[in-house]
Every structure is written in structure tokens, then in C-alpha cells.
Amino acid sequence: MPVRHAIALAALFLVLYLPGLGTTPPLDRDEPRFMQASKQMLETGDYIDIRFQEEPRYKKPALIYWMQSASVTLFAGGDKTAVWAYRLPSVLGAMLAVIFTYLTAVILTSRPVAIVAAGILASSILLVAEAHIAKTDAMLLAAITAGQYVLAALYRGEHRRHLFPLFWIALGAGVMLKGPVALAPAIATIAGLGLWDRTLAWAKPLRPLVGIPLMLAVTLPWFIAIIVQSDGHFLQKAVVEDMLNKVGGGVESHGMPPGYYLAILTLTFWPGSLFLPLAVTGAWLNRAEKPVRFLICWALPVWLMFELIPTKLPHYTLPIFPALAILTAMAVTDSGAIARHFGRLWSRGWGGIWLLLGIAFAAGLLGSPLFLIPPVTLAMPGVAFWSAGLAALAVALFATFAYWRGAMRSALLVAIIGAAGTYVLIFEAALPSLQPLWVGTRLAAAVSDAAPDRSTPVFIAGFGEPSAVFLLGTDTKHGGGAEAARYLDAVRDGVVLVEARHRDAFLKEAEILNLQPEAGATISGLNYSRGDPVAVTLYRAAPR
Question: How far, rounded to the nearest angstrom, does the alpha carbon of residue 379 sit from its chain's CA centroid?
Fold first, then answer.
């Protein structure tokens, strides 16, 4: 990699992925569940079982929890609530995914195309978001892209020694991150190229008779251990209740019809989505070329698979984004002939649609705090939101005008740089300022102020979001209002947090027990996981 490309990527990583890591609170619900399970591994020393408090968490294998635990141990100095440390593996995953995309594009095309593809992927809003969240998806993308890099090298006739083990170890890591779904891009690419070319001679260096045992050596030890330790419950939860249910029907209110991913691609691939029609046109025109053929076989089958599966979440199609980024980079760097085929009228029409999306995005940033006013009181949008909204609007306007003029490279440069500035404002300033959303963080601060030396668990009546457990402690207890009163009567130096809907039951039971609870701070906000307003009051027992 040339030095100038390395410097450009390092600058992108610094600006795109680091702002907001420590200032944005845990994002309910999935992120604090991952954090808490990793935290419990550190607390118990059990790195086989995965639990959220006493509840088994068997939806994903263990690798991401190991990575998060290692990150906290290495970088957080024993602070098990250091949110940023749990997010570092996601940052690393995003960086590796971009680097392997660059290397794949170098093999398939050229270095100028590769750096453009890396910039497009790095700045895509979906990958930037995943890099800021302590989950599996950014690191999964790194594992998948590493495997695809090997396939691209073999398909282009390169036979380096490191390719064989890298492919199978990457597949094993993907399985240890998210299960068998991690194999889909590699299988789809190999099968698609086999059908298209009517030969798989290029794939012989993969040596599956040796490689599959290598992959199993990465995955089987933990799978065997967890199956034994859980008495087989892991298979029931992970395979039947999670994977098969998602394939068979929409679960957790995430069912969507086919076409969902196509409909949201303009947003999830933003700002690179401005050039997607050029990429599709270029892929069709150049489909006979081997690099394009490889990228089509990477992206199209996986895309169709996820469109047909009823359960849909925006990040499911992230594994095809590197292929889209390379196709887009190829189109942007050779846009003249492609643009002529695409047509001036179609180009203006698509640019107008993308501009409207950008204006809507900017309006959402400018007005999003206003949506919290009923029933949650929040001040008018501050400088952070105004700045982020205006930055997004500038990206939409200047990139679209350059696109309409046919200055594709200038449009892309404006889009990436402008998007980077927008992301910094969103993650470092705008999101942390939305205090009504961060109820769990504010509850933990209230408890720390009221009982800085507490030695007993906090009891929560009502508010049950995972962020509260992560921040207040693994021993946090849950129940109804009456149970909270009985707990406070039994644990006189205890702290209870009572949501408004449980307050009457709490006070009634406290009266029966002749308990005089003293009310402390009341935390009001919005439970955005449910879309409901919430008010939680801290109580302690009055001295007898």
C-alpha cells in the first residue's frame, strides 16, 4: 500500500470511527446486552457460557464477547463500565473490513480504484454506525471480507502461501462471531462463479479436505464445550429459536417483505449511494470481465437470500457492501462511457432523488429533538444538531450539483469529506446531548450521587432496559412496586428505583410495612426501545 493511501485511510479511520466512542451512552437494547455478557465473563472468569445476569444468551457464539473482554482488560484498566472499551473491537472490525476491501480491489482492478472503494465503504453510514456499537457486525464484515480477498486473489490467478490458511481461519472466525450465516458470501461467490464459468479449477488451492478441518479446529472446541455445559440448550436456542425462526418468519417484530433492503439502500449506503446507478450500469456493461463477474457473484446471491428471508434488519446486508463499494469505485473512476449509457435524463432524475433524501436527512437532524417534546420536554435543537443538519444539507447540495455536472470524482470527494464531518458532529456532540434518551445512564448517576458507598444491589421496579443493568451492576434486581417496598424494608441501606406506573403499588406496600421511603431524584425521559415516556424515582428508607 502506498504511503499516501495508508495516510488517507488512517485519517478516515480517525475521523469516522473514534468520535463518540466514549461520549455516546450504551444504546438499548442489543449493545448493553453484549456489553453485560462480556462484563460477566470478566467477573466470573467463565469464558464458555454466555449470560445476561442469570439468563442464558445463546443467540451468538463467543468470539465477540472474548474480544470485548480482552479490550476492557487491556485498555480500560479494570473499569468494567468503560463503554468505549467494549466498542473497540467494532472499530477494529470496520478498519480491517476497509483494508481488506482495498486489498481486494487492488487484486481485481487497480490501486486508484482501490483507495476510492475503501473511502466509499469506510464512509457508508451503516458501517460507521456499526463501528460505534459493541456488537458483532463490524467484526463479522472483517472476517467475511478477509475470506473474499482470498477468493479474489485465487480467481485472478495468484497463489500465495498465506491465502490458504487465511481463508479457512477467516471463515472459522466468522462462524465464531455469528454462526453459519458467515459462510454465505464465500459459498455464494464460489457457487456463482462455478455456474457462470463452468469451472472451479481456480479454487483448487483452497484444498477443502485440509481447510475444513482447519476451520473446525477454530470453531469446534468452544461449540463442544458450550453444548456440554448447557446440556444442549445452546443448540435449541441458537439454531431452532434464533436462526431457523428468522428464516421461517419475522421475529422480534422485524418481519419485512422482499424489496426492503433495496428500498433502504440509498440511506444505508449513503453517501456512496449517489453513484449506485452508475455502478449497476457499469456492472451490466462489463459483466463479461472477470473482476465484475466476481463482484456480482459476491453481492447478488447474498442480497437475494436476505430479501427472501422474512426477518430483516438493516445491517443484515452489510457483507455485500465491499462488493458494492468496489463496483461503485470502478464506475466513478471510469464514468464517461458508463454515464453515456446511463443517460443524462436518468442521471438528473436520480440525482434529484438523492438530493431529496439528503434534505430529508438534514431536516431529521435539525428537527429530531423536537419530536421528543410531546410528552418529554427538551430544549430546542442546540448547536450540535444545527451543525450536523447543515453539514448533511451541504453534502446533499454540493455533491448533487457536482454529480449533475458530470464531475463524478469531485462529487465523491465532497460526499466523503462532508459525510465525515457530519458523523463527527452526530456522534461526538449531537447524540450525547439527547439527555432524555439516556435514562439508564442518568439513573446510574443518580444512584452514585445518592449512595456513593452502597454495598447492596439496586432494585428496579418497572424500567427494565439492559443499559441499567450494565451500568448499575450484574446483581441489579427487578420486580414490581410491592416487591421493591419489601426489598427496601429488608435491606435498610438499599436503593430502589420505581417507575411511575409502579409507584402506587410501592407506596401502598410501604404503608403496610410501616416503611417511610424517602424520595430522591426523579429521572424523566423517553424509553426509545418502546417509544414510551418514562419517569423513575429513587427511594431510600428513612432512618428509624
Answer: 29
In 43-120 the beta strands, taken as DSSP E runs, fall at 51-52, 55-56
C-alpha cell at 296: 456480482
Based on the number of CB atoms within 10 Å of its own CB, is 80 exposed (0-12), middle (13-18) or buried (19 or more)?
buried
Burial of 532 (0-12, 13-18, 19+ CB in 10 A): exposed
| CB proximity list for 173: less than 8 A, separation 6 or greater | 63, 143, 218
For helices 184-197 and 290-308, angle between their N-to-C axes, nearest 10 degrees: 130
Burial profile 459-485: b = 16 or more Cβ within 10 angstroms, e = fewer: bbbbbbbbbbbbbbbbebbbbbbbbbb
CA distance 527 to 521: 18
Q: Distance between terminal CA atoms of the chain? A: 72
C-alpha of 484 from chain center: 35
Q: Confirm if 324 and 282 have CB atoms less than 8 A apart.
A: no
CA distances from 449 to 120, 453, 460, 464, 534 (A): 45, 9, 17, 21, 21
The string of pLDDT tens digits covering residues 310-345 is 888 999 999 999 999 999 999 998 765 665 565 566
User: Longest C-alpha distance within the chain, in Å?
Assistant: 85
The per-residue pLDDT for range 67-113, each reduced to its tens digit, is 999 999 999 987 999 999 999 999 999 999 999 999 999 999 999 99
Nearest to 86 by CA among 34, 121, 47: 34
